[in-house]
Amino acid sequence: MFQFSPIGTLALVSVAACWALALLLFRVSTSGSVGRKLSFLLLAEGVTLVSTGFIDLFLTEETRAQQWYPQFFQFEAIIHTLGDCVMLALYPPFLAVALQTKLVRPFAKKGVRTGISLASAVLFFIVIFGPIEVGGTLLYLALSLLFTFALVASIHAWHTATGIARSRAGVFALAFGRRAI
Fold first, then answer.
1. 55-59, 90-94, 99-103, 158-162 — which is least confidently predicted?
2. pLDDT band at 164 (very low <50, low <70, confident <90, very high)
3. Distance, CA of 164 to CA of 128 (rounded, Å)
4. pTM more than 0.90
5. Count of C-beta atoms within a 10 Å radius of residue 6
6. Are 95 and 108 contacting, i.e. CB atoms less than 8 angstroms apart?
7. For 152, how many CA atoms within 13 A lie in the half-sphere containing its CB?
């Protein structure tokens, strides 16, 4: 039923790291802080990672041939899409709090955050209930634009900031650069 997978093990370690860091940041951060917003983002990132299909690497061929497997695979796809859409809603407010530049400041407004959340929810339903060619393309485009924007915003913040804010923006630029790639 189960088999060892080195790639699956690395993915499992990544999920565990996301969730452990999310729990730690949630415990030590105050409501509305950068750490709290990052903890929610890491939780969503972990959900998205755990549902990428790496669990299939631990399953043997005969297990994947079982009757329940197609439903499991479909459930995994729904959870992955949900995680992606939640990240779309959480990233911009996180950037607004973390970087605090003119470029990301609009995302701190409640109306903008609500609009992004609603758009993410609509996108989720388009992906799940619409043609996958349309929904999947829109989701991929939205995530690509978001991660590219995060990289540009963090480089901009690094360029304009000084002191600790500059160091933070530099770390975010490295992280978002890696994420965007």
1. 55-59
2. confident
3. 42
4. no
5. 8
6. no
7. 10
